[in-house]
């Protein structure tokens, strides 16, 4: 299969830090809590990052369950991460601006054999593109210029 390129365009809404991400024909809003200059109207970027990991794992569990002969009654992924705002606020140069650690727990309700469920979970964790991305993908700013209006 050929490489797929996924895209998102994020536009500031002109007030606070509220933005809208346009992803294909869909939209999601991005904001920050009031304590970080936002209106607290939508999740913030680092919350979306956690949701992306949980969502990807959920999609893969459901997608591959049949292949592993696992009956899924319900599945959810609890995701949490530790982030010290002093890093991205520039208050402490010794604190990284991103997550220090992200933890997740996959909760599956299934009557299938435990060994089959475990094989499914092992496979999902090995192939999850979001997990793989979080473990070390180069991120490149392709255009450092800004649009300036005179």
Q: How would you briefly describe this protein structure?
A:
This protein is α+β, with helices and mostly antiparallel strands. Helices cover 27% and strands 21% of the residues.
Report what the structure shows.
With 150 residues, the chain is of the alpha+beta class. It is 27% helix and 21% strand. It is built from 3 helices and 5 strands. It has a 3-stranded antiparallel sheet with strand order 1-2-3, with no helix packed on it. Strand 1 and strand 2 form a beta hairpin. The longest helix has 21 residues. It is globular and about 50 Å long.
Q: What distinguishing features does this structure have?
A:
150 residues; 3-stranded antiparallel beta sheet; alpha+beta; two-stranded antiparallel ribbon; 5 strands
> Separation of termini?
46 Å
**What letter string, H or E per element, gives the SSE order?**
EEEHEEHH
Number of contiguous helices = 3
What share of the residues does DSSP label as strand, in percent? 15-25%
Percent helix among the residues? 25-40%
In one word, what is the shape?
A: globular
Major β-sheet profile: 3 strands, antiparallel
Low-confidence stretches: none
Q: Return Rg in Å.
A: 19 Å
Structural class by SSE content = alpha+beta
The total beta strand count reads: 5
Mean pLDDT over the full residue set: 92
Order of strands, main sheet, comes to 1-2-3
